[in-house]
Design a protein that fits this description.
With about 500 residues, the protein is mainly α. It is built from 22 helices and ten strands. It has three domains: about 290 residues, no CATH class; about 110 residues, no CATH class; about 80 residues, 2-Layer Sandwich (Alpha-Beta Plaits). Strands 1-4 form a two-stranded antiparallel ribbon. The protein has a two-stranded antiparallel sheet with strand order 2-3.
Length: about 500
């Protein structure tokens, strides 16, 4: 390829990276506006996230199938041209270029290295794919574009990860992409059978290929690893003999394959690598399956299903946490939630919070509701609209208004009516249910200096209460007398 062509391809790639990164930032900012919610396309149209909640939606499947089809044709272009995390890592690598060159501990991996040809990312991919079908999904902790949303959210977790990205740039280029990223490994698997590939046809032994950020090019064997090459065109223009070509790959026939294996049927190294990669994927799948099956990822103090009460229509709810509206099946929610923090950032009332280890590893970083300051707006569906894969189910407004989040409970020892004999109607007044989920089953005539009055004792109508928490947030008692919980 001509140097001028390579220069323009590099510029075009940088423009593509900037555009897609800008799209991510734009959709994130728009998702914060409750009146114009926009879903994150990098999470919605993602093949790994799709596995957590597969559904026959053409407008969802078509973009995912399109990305995979383009990968089968072009190669692993997503990581170099589209992926926002890849763009962030590349920017970090460029910023720390000089310190990295002076770092004696910097990593200089060779394309012949075992960890480059058989990257740990394959094991991670196998573990992630198996675990997405369980409640102990590993996907939220390894998906690149979930992490970049956490960074944009300025969460502690996201900022720590950003620090690790910056630190890794002092030791090597695109270390995450080469060795860890399961999404990149998935596209790498598809790119092994891509029709178009970058290859070395002429070589002057100038060693310019050693600058490949993905360690995909080996000038010694004139080989470019298709599953590592992200078509970055970062160093090819430096080739003095213009020896790079990008085009159709000649497919070997049976005679060629027989010759490669030898007349005696000796083992082909490429076949050995293929089997080892398969073993890596299988090993990762076994790890993910074992962790899920043994529940070793659950905290010792995690609550057990037999200690809790399920809400109507739910299946073995194993948590006391109030989940966002529409979440009924806790197991399905844990399997689908990618912990992207979009619902937390977008909630206009600020009642969705991040769960820590108090509910076990399986619930770590999932959203739950706290009604200390506000309740769940009766007409709001922002969290349902912004969730990229409907871990928070998208309902009609009428369905949302009928689906219980939890159940309110009045502590008579704290209630000013029961305890202090003072009149109070706040909980009923703020209840958004048209028929009111707070009733006054008991009334008592009282006397005070200003004259007689009727003291009404509030109680919760369990058949009507949806646990929106508005009554809890509005309770005027010094120690809040009404709370919403899923606990029995």
């Amino acid at each position: 390829m001509k140097k001028r062509t390579l220069v323009w391809l590099k510029r075009l790639r940088v423009v593509s990276q900037a555009v897609f990164l800008a799209i991510l930032v734009y959709t994130f900012i728009r998702s914060l506006d409750p009146f114009s919610v926009v879903q994150n396309p990098f999470l919605r149209f993602d093949p790994l996230i799709f596995l957590t909640n597969p559904r026959p939606d053409f407008y969802l499947i078509a973009p995912i199938a399109g990305l995979i089809a383009l990968t089968l044709v072009l190669g692993r272009f997503f990581c170099g041209w589209i992926c926002p995390m890849g763009s962030l890592i590349e920017l970090s690598d460029n910023i720390f270029s000089f310190p990295r060159k002076a770092n004696p501990a910097a990593i200089h991996a060779s394309p012949q290295s075992f960890l480059v040809r058989l990257p740990p990312a394959l094991v991670v991919l196998g573990a992630v794919v198996v675990s997405v079908f369980t409640s102990t999904s590993l996907l939220p902790y390894f998906h690149p574009n979930v992490w970049i949303v956490r960074i944009l959210s300025r969460s502690v977790l996201g900022l720590v990860f950003l620090g690790l990205v910056l630190l890794s740039s002092l030791f090597g280029r695109r270390l995450w992409c080469v060795f860890i990223c399961p999404l990149g490994a998935l596209y790498g698997v598809f790119s092994r059978i891509s029709f178009l590939r970058l290859r070395i046809e002429k070589c002057s032994q100038c060693k310019a290929c050693d600058r490949c950020p993905m360690q995909a090019a080996d000038f010694r064997t004139r080989e470019i690893l298709p599953y590592q090459c992200i078509l970055c065109f970062d160093y090819e223009k430096s080739c003095p003999v213009e020896g790079f070509r990008y085009g159709l790959v000649a497919r070997a026939g049976k005679s060629t394959l027989r010759a490669a294996c030898g007349a005696s049927g000796s083992f082909d190294p490429s076949r050995r690598e293929f089997l080892l990669r398969g073993a890596g994927l299988l090993g990762g799948a076994m790890v993910g399956g074992v962790l899920a099956g043994l529940h070793v990822l659950s905290a010792p103090g995690a609550l057990k299903p037999d200690r809790l009460r399920s809400l109507p229509g739910s299946t073995a709810v194993a948590t006391t946490l109030c989940r966002p509206p529409g979440v009924i099946d806790e197991a399905s929610f844990l399997r689908r939630c990618v912990r992207c923090l979009h619902c937390i950032q977008s909630c206009p009332n600020g009642i969705i919070e991040v769960t820590g280890l108090e509910a076990g590893f399986t619930s770590l970083f999932t959203p739950h509701l706290r009604f200390d300051k506000n309740g769940c707006d009766y007409r709001c569906q922002v969290c349902q609209l912004v969730c990229p894969n409907q871990a928070i189910p998208l309902q009609t407004l009428a369905q949302k208004q009928l689906t219980p989040i939890g159940l309110a409970f009045i502590d008579q020892k704290k209630c000013v009516v029961y305890n202090d004999k003072k009149p109070c109607l706040v909980c009923q007044e703020v209840c958004p249910i048209p028929e009111k989920a707070i009733s006054f089953a008991k009334e008592e005539r009282m006397m005070r200096a200003s004259g007689p009055f009727v003291l009404r004792y509030p109680s919760v109508v369990t058949e009507r209460c949806i646990g929106c928490g508005i009554c809890q947030a509005a309770c005027p008692a010094e120690k809040v007398a009404i709370t919403v919980s899923r606990k029995a």
